[in-house]
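Section 5.1 Outputs to date
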Amino acid sequence: MGLSKPHKVGNGFSARWVSLFCIASFFLGVLVVNSFWGVPDPDKIDEEASPLEKDQPRRVLPPIVNCEKKASYKIQIFVSSIYTVNQALDKTISTLEVQLATARASKSGNYEGSPVVIRPGKEPLKERQKLFFVMGIMTAFSSRKRRESIRETWMPQGDELKKLEVEKGIIMRFVIGHSATPGGLLDRAIDVEDEKHKDFFRLNHIEGYHELSSKTQTYFTAAVSKWDADFYIKVDDDVHINLGMVGSTLARHRSKPRTYIGCMKSGPVLANKGVKYHEPEYWKFGEEGNKYFRHATGQIYAISKDLATYISVHRHILHKYANEDVSLGSWFIGVDVEHIDERSLCCGTSPECEWKAQAGNPCAASFDWSCSGMCKSVERMEEVHERCGEGDEAIWHTSF
């Protein structure tokens, strides 16, 4: 690149020498900046310039101008790096807080008032195995036939249930409390059933339809105290489940903090007494005709460990509304929670789940919206399992 024709300047130097001096100063400045900031070589910058830019005469600027630009660029990178490190520290602190809260919850589980029914003669818990997810199947004293329909279809039994825990890190239990008169006929019947199948999780909770919010809260509190898992699932006992698909769905969100996974909805707040799902505290949700905040439908949903721990730690001050799914959603209002709308968790029964299974994309969970669960689940569970199931061996061949 040529220099302009020399002409004299006032101090006796030619313009050519002045230009050479400026160029030398420029490169000296670049070397100094490189030594401190590691900025790119100017020659490489020139090589990346367009042909039109290369054909133009070079304009030599004082080094200080380029230094300021390079310094500003490097400061931006430095600030960005600090932000990244700060995020990592926040995540680490959040993890430690969860671990501390979990340890406190686990410790409190050994005292009177624990949400878990502690049986005499049980050995104290040793170091807990790290698990993938805990699935609590909500059931009632009157639902023995529903439980049998699940045992005969999608829930492994006996040694297979234990193998699922050891090899896949998956815990599955029917969740039930006790009657108003502990030790009565209803409780003894569950004792006999549990002795046979060993698939119950007993809560220190009085069973009752209007106590579902309390039961859900107690379940998460007890589960996070007993098992160390990435996710905790609540599912009703009239829903069909494909375990492999549930595992694959949760695995996609395993590294995320504070996740709330389900089929998100926002139904109307029902103020009229006597109707199903009536909300006595309807006035809290604004004017008549308003809808609830977004929350997962109650048939099945999953929450990450930190949210289960949050419920456990704050259970004494978390308000319980009439509807269990609304209560859970309300507990996460004002908390930094990621709501994940996962439609595979709310497929309809045949034919919807059937053609999806035939297409090689089975649903994770299936039920009928019209019945808030599978209509006539005892009679239909086997049929739905045959038509919509992923195959009994799918869970063993699925990697999480």
